């Protein structure tokens, strides 16, 4: 049996996980991730990155306020 569109389904849902995680909506990212019937390496990377960013920003933000640091804008050439 050939699953038509299966690769696209995983691709789209992984994109949603990544999008929600980057927007700080980790609960929504996890919901989409949990509902995926099968996960691939990109799916796992998206959700783990979301958790990492969530932890990183929650621990860095208060420190940045203490020392009055401003975010740096990086321009890619």
TrEMBL record:
- Database matches in InterPro entries: PPR_At4g14850-like_plant (IPR046960), PPR_rpt (IPR002885), TPR-like_helical_dom_sf (IPR011990)
Q: Which UniProt keywords apply?
A: Repeat
The protein's matches in Gene3D superfamilies, at most eight in alphabetical order, are given as: Tetratricopeptide repeat domain
One Gene Ontology biological process: RNA modification
Keyword Repeat in the entry? The reply is yes
PPR repeat coordinates: 9-43
Q: What is this protein called?
A: Putative pentatricopeptide repeat protein
User: What is the organism lineage in this UniProt record?
Assistant: Eukaryota, Viridiplantae, Streptophyta, Embryophyta, Tracheophyta
């Amino acid at each position: 049996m050939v699953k038509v569109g299966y690769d696209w389904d995983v691709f789209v849902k992984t994109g949603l996980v990544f999008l929600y995680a980057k927007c700080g909506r980790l609960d929504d990212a996890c919901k989409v991730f949990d509902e995926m019937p099968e996960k691939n390496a990109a799916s796992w990377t998206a959700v783990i990155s979301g958790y990492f960013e969530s932890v990183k920003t929650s621990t860095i933000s208060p420190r940045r306020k203490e020392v009055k640091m401003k975010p740096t804008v990086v321009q890619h050439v």
